[in-house]
Amino acid sequence: VAYILAMQSASLDDPYTGLSHEAIERLRNPPHSRVSLDDDRALKLAIRLYIDLNHADDDYEKARKAFNEYHGDEDSRLPSLNQVKNIVAELTGIEEMKHDMCINTCVGFTGPLAKNDECPECGETRYKSDVFALTGRREPRRQFTSYPVGPQIQAIFRDPESAREM
After folding, report:
1. What pTM was computed for the model?
2. For residue 99, which of 26, 21, 27, 17 has the smallest C-alpha distance?
3. How confident is the model over 87-110, as pLDDT tens digits?
4. Which residues pair with 118 in a beta bridge?
5. Gap between the Cα atoms of 12 and 145, Å rounded
6. Could you tell me where the DSSP H helices lie in 21-148?
């Protein structure tokens, strides 16, 4: 019942959405122009690598380093992983959402569980106790990534051909 009530009262203004202010603004005011990367071959390659690599967070940086060592000039260098993620989010409106989850994958700390410090299933703590003891910062032990469907649909409708195929 708690999840049903949470869904009924869901709002983009909820601080637990996991979306940045920019992503919420893009959802409310979606871009309408078609995206083109034809003028920037290095950026086109960077986005292609980021999207195509199975383990993008690790593999992209390795591929980027090798590419940048091979292509020494500044104009053809690939952006960092963080930069390419931001560029993809800006161009498409699609941004990843990170949510904490139980270290044993029992539950995600979302909705009615968003404020829990322990897993209701196995009792494991949500945060790394050693990090908190040293820094006072709450660092999750495990997270999962999701991509909201709204920006994906908006991105499809930015391209007339894709919109017709829907």
Report:
1. 0.70
2. 17
3. 888 888 888 888 999 999 999 998
4. 125
5. 18
6. 21-28, 41-52, 56-70, 81-92, 129-135
Closest by CA position to 30, among listed 150, 166, 161? 150
Rounded CA-CA distance 93/133 in Å is: 37
Rounded distance, CA 118 to CA 116, Å?
6
Tokens 């292509």, located at residue: 71
Q: What backbone phi and psi angles, to 5 degrees, belong to 10?
A: -60, 145
Q: What is the DSSP string of 45-75?
A: HHHHHHHH-TTHHHHHHHHHHHHHHHS-SGG
Closest by CA to 141, choosing from 160, 122, 155, is 122
Percent composition of the chain: helix, strand, coil (DSSP 3-state, to 5): 50, 10, 40
Residue 160 corresponds to which amino acid? P
Using alpha carbons only, how large is the chain's radius of gyration in Å?
19
- pLDDT tens for each residue of 118-138: 999 999 999 999 888 888 889
